[in-house]
Amino acid sequence: MRSASGAPVRRIRGGRARRLRAALGMRTRARRGASVPKCDYCGSTILFGGKRDGEFRFCNDRCHQSGVLLAVSRQVPDNLVQQQVWSVHQGRCPRCGGTGPTDVHVSHRVWSALVLTSWASRPQVSCRRCGMKSQAGDALFSLVLGWWGFPWGLVMTPVQIGRNLVGLAKGPDPTKPSPQLEKIVRMSMANRALVTGSGKPDASSS
Ligand SMILES: [Zn+2]
Ligand SMILES: [Zn+2]
User: Which residues crowd ion ligand 2, with CB under 5 Å?
Assistant: First the structure.
């Protein structure tokens, strides 16, 4: 398994990696009908670039690293996940401590320097107010710093600003947790299980 820079990936080897592959394979086969590729972690549409891992796609390294846990997390029992998802959704915002509903809000930014352009979509678990604050901040950030690269700065700056505006105009359904929130909660549960349980790197066994 190749990981760009991911420590979490390194932890998963041998049998676990094969199981991971199988889970990833099943997942992508089921959703192959879609024409526009989406990041399998944060759900953002991937227009240009992105990271491939087998047939799995992510918008950037950060989502790729998190996405590896996604497969492991499928082993966490559904009823436990549902319980936790709803308690996060109905609970207080982890950023500002205000009232919920708490859900995933993705903000998008881009910056450029001459021939280099870097863009990322960042999911954040928070209330809608905090989500909108990040989206407005990233829109402004991109508006100022996005343009100064050729050609991608000129292409991606309107894209990232547009995505933030879409997010600002319409948030996730406040009456129920989004699928993205379920994914993220599921993964944090899996991560906790890995760290406290069988989280030892199995490289030591060779
Ligand atoms: Zn992503
Ligand atoms: Zn908040």
Answer: 93, 95-96, 98, 126-127, 130
Distance CA 82, CA 66 (A): 20
Nearest ligand to the C-alpha atom of residue 60:
1
**Half-sphere exposure of residue 63, counting CA atoms within 13 Å on the CB side?**
28
Please tell me the distance between residue 52's alpha carbon and the centre of ligand 1 in angstroms.
12
Render pLDDT for 59-115 as a digit per residue (tens, 0 to 9). Answer: 888 888 887 787 778 888 999 999 999 999 999 999 999 998 999 999 999 999 999
Residue 13, φ and ψ in degrees, nearest 5: -130, 175
Q: At what angle do helices 61-72 and 179-196 cross, to 10 degrees?
A: 70
- Domain ranges for the chain, please list them: 7-80+179-195, 93-169
